[in-house]
Design brief:
Elements: H1 3-13, H2 18-37, E1 42-44, E2 48-55, E3 58-61, E4 68-71, E5 74-81, H3 83-96
């Protein structure tokens, strides 16, 4: 699902214009971005939590050439899935996992025991 699809869904469910739903999403994402840039943790109960993780500088290796390179310290966003979301996804996968439908127009014949490939 893309941001525009999410805005459209919000506009339909909450009876808002698409512009208002898009503005609402932009506001939420801006608030989250500002909080993460201040190293604040964001927790949405039942969904998960966002935080920034700090990684120190270290020596790495260029996989193509094998030469040693210096990797700079960095700060990256990290998302941890909440228990309820994890459970709901696992339950949904267990109930919706189906085998693909067989094409009945093309019969599946096993070559075992049919004499195929024998002279």
């Amino acid at each position: 699902m893309t941001k525009s699809e999410l805005a459209e869904h919000i506009s339909q469910v909450q009876k808002l214009s698409k512009g208002s739903a898009g503005l609402l999403l932009d506001t939420v994402f801006d608030c989250m971005l500002q909080a993460l840039s201040r190293d604040e943790r964001i927790e949405i109960r039942g969904f998960g939590s966002f935080e920034t993780r700090h990684y120190r500088a270290h020596k790495g290796r260029n996989p193509r050439t094998g030469t040693s390179v210096e990797v700079k310290a960095k700060r990256l966003p990290y998302f941890k899935v909440g228990k309820e979301l994890r459970h709901r996804i696992a339950t949904a996968l267990a109930t919706t996992r189906e085998l693909p439908a067989l094409d009945t127009a093309t019969p599946i014949i096993s070559a075992v025991g049919t004499g195929a490939g024998r002279n």
